[in-house]
Amino acid sequence: MSDSSAVTLAARRWRGLLMREIRENRSLMLYAPCLLVLVAVLLGLRLFTLFSVERQTAAMDLLFNRFEGINALEIAPLLTSAGALNLVFIVGIALSYLATSLYSDRRELSYLFWQSMPISDRATVMSKVVTSVLVIPAIYLAILTLGSIILFISAAVYSFFLGIELNGLVELVSTLSIALGFIGLSAVTAMLWLLPAVGWILLFSAYATRVPLLWAIGGLVALSLFEQVVLSSNTLEAWMASRSSPWQYLVFSLDDLGARLFTYDMLFGAVLGGILISGAILMRRFAD
Amino acid sequence: MEEMTRDGLALGDRGSPESAIRARQLRKSYGGFVALDGIDLDIPRGAICGLIGPNGAGKTTVLKSLVGLCDAGGDLSVIGHDPRLAREALMQDACFIADVGVLPKSLRVIDVLDYVDDVHPKFDREKALRFLSTTDIDLRKRVKALSKGMVTQLHLALVMAIDVELLILDEPTLGLDIIYRQEFYDRLLTQFYDGRQTIVISTHQVEEIESLLSHLIFISHGKIVFSTEMEALQRRFVEVAVTPENFSLADELKPIHARSTLGGKDYLFEIDDDEQATPDRRQFERLGRVSTPSVADVFLAKLGGGHE
Amino acid sequence: MDRKNKRGHRVTFMQRTLRNTLLYNKHTLFIATVVAVLFVIAVEGRLTSREASSQEFENPFFDIQVSPQVRADIR
After folding, report:
1. For chain A, what is the mean pLDDT?
2. Vertex A179: Cα angle to A174 and A182 (nearest 5)
3. A92/chain C closest Cα distance in angstroms
């Protein structure tokens, strides 16, 4: 087999694996973000209509003219941190996806079909990891971008009717794009930072016979309680707390990204995640 | 051609290159329950082998361990792979249909096709689509919206479009009505099997597949009770419809099983070619009408154990 | 063909040991994995003798936005 055809085969296999995850979890990965963005857009519009036309005009003027001549890179972090709530949604979607990812096929017995395909347990589990770290943030970001475009165009059209000049359009669009891009990068960083949680939930998803997410959380609580009572220390709790603040994930520049990705703590988390993910991979042989 | 053995021995001692499946002392237990209790298998390439046994005999466990879906102990080689170590490589050349409708319920039919097309290098999408066009299956429907018969048809379409060496079917027609069942095996024989592949089918409704089998394995309580080639089975067993006046004569010939019928008894005899002691075929003809027993009769006799 | 390599493989000592211990059943594997992770956390904590705490990243953006006065008020 030539190298290029081996690469093609591997690429097709990965396309199949990732498309499977999207198709099996349409409601969580596609419809839920759509709904969230739609609600946000409607809520924004509703709030907007509460103001008088004068204030609306002033706001639109601010939006479309204040950006003129501004450095998009400098102002983008403002929008990025305003969008920090999206990270909570992305992480929430990813973790609840992971909780059922190695469980639902065992429950509906379709693991007999999946495992009868020439796909190793490792590839199966890794496809879930890649889905949670890359695919879910990417899909969410695409939907968020679409929502932003719709909102942006409606604002522009409305401003046009209010007779507002659109002077800072280029700067505004680039600020928005940069902010959206950094929300996406922040989401990926967050998921990488949470690799121990990804592995922990995958392990329970592969192990539990029912409600894996509850067991995963319960197991963690029980372990830290055990540590507190028996060893009278709170290392585990502190360690978990040290990884759960969402502000750690926000990335405002490429330098930021480097500073977060290549730290000792990130790598150490990846090692722990790796151990747990390996456990989940081996656990697949006990799927029956 | 004497490949007949008893009590868990192999189906002859063919060289391993011709063996599609070779197992020695296959063992598996779930907790305290012993599902497989030292199973030996030798299934030659090109065979259509029936794995017959009552519910809970261990059929599913045998078949699952053949494709690496359950982790049994013992030596195992399936078309040259150890399924426990190389399931991924094995499944390039083998397919498995389980006894329950196991296709992922939330996917659309077309999604399942796309998936197999992407991950299986030996899948022929056009062939599967051609097959599906002869059924009532709507490609855009979700699997959970299909009837059980349709799910089986879909699974068969997928499997038949894959150019494999080994096909493992675990009670594939369980719960299907007679039309689907007949069609399933017809299609399997006419559109899939060309003599190169090895097929292992488990069932507890042996009469349904009797005519297509080349080999037969009886399994009970995790052990192989009896295994044979179909050809040998016909030479080896005779069924005689005996009228009451000949009962005592028939009993003297040591039948392995007897079953009351209207106006007499059907006696089942086993002829062992090697032993001089067993009676000649002509002797049976004096007792009554001689016929070839069905697999189900032999199965009952072997499993029920002896004289009524 | 890879088939020839796969045929007649030997189960190594390592594989046999794993099968009899960690991979004995799903529960042993589960416990082994959890213990391994806790062990690594404990050893790492001992080696680096650090307190588990929130990672502080420098965000110049926040410095601009939140004046020392406001910060002091919050605290």
Report:
1. 90
2. 125
3. 20
One domain for residues B76 and B58 = yes
CB-CB: which of A245, A252, A286 is closest to C59?
A252
Inter-chain contact C55–A265, Cβ cutoff 8 Å?
yes
Judged against a pLDDT cut of 80, whether residue A149 lies above it is answered with yes
Q: Which residues of A119-137 are buried (b: 16+ CB within 10 A; e: fewer)?
A: bbbebbbebbbebbbbbbb
pTM above 0.90, yes or no: no
> Nearest CB to B77: which of C4, C7, C23?
C7
The verdict on residue C9 lying in a domain is: yes
The tokens describing A40, both together, are 């946000």
Number of H helices, E strands in chain B: 10, 14
Residue B97 has pLDDT above 60, yes or no: yes
Q: Give the β-pairing of B5-6 and B215-220.
A: unpaired
Closest-CA residue of B relative to A19 is B115
* Per-residue model confidence (pLDDT) at position B130: 93
| Chain C (17-46) residues lying within 8 Å, Cβ to Cβ, of chain A | 22-23, 25-26, 29-30, 32-34, 36-38, 40-42, 44-45
Hey, how many other C-beta atoms are within 10 angstroms of the C-beta on A165?
A: 12
Neighbours of A, requiring at least 3 CB pairs below 8 Å, are B, C
Q: Which of B192, B214, B232 is the last residue of a domain?
A: B232
- Tokens of residue A125, six digits: 């589990």
Contact B91 A23 (CB under 8 A): no
Domain limits for position B119: 5-232
Looking at the fold, whether B228 and B258 belong to one and the same domain comes out as no
Indicate whether B141 and B276 sit together in one domain.
Answer: no
Number of domains making up chain C: 1
Q: Domain check: are B274 and B150 in the same one? A: no
Query: What is the Cα–Cα distance from B28 to B31, expressed in whole angstroms?
Result: 10
Helix pair angle (A195-207, A212-226), 10° resolution: 120
Report the chain B residue with the minimal C-alpha distance to residue C6. Answer: B81
Give the rounded percent of residues in chain B with a pLDDT score beyond 90. Answer: 37
Q: Test A112 with B91 for CB contact under 8 angstroms.
A: no
Give the chain C residue whose CA is nearest to the CA of B29: C25
Residue A33 buriedness (CB in 10 A; 0-12 / 13-18 / 19+): buried
C10 shares contact with chain B (CB less than 8 Å)? no
CB pairs A-C closer than 8 Å: 75
Query: Among the listed ranges A153-157, B163-167, B205-209, which one has the minimum average pLDDT value?
Result: B205-209
| Complex prediction ipTM | 0.90
Name the pLDDT band for B15 (thresholds 50, 70, 90). very low
| Mean pLDDT score, B28-40 | 88
Contacts of A19 in chain B (CB under 8 A): 111, 114-115, 118
Contact A116 B91 (CB under 8 A): yes
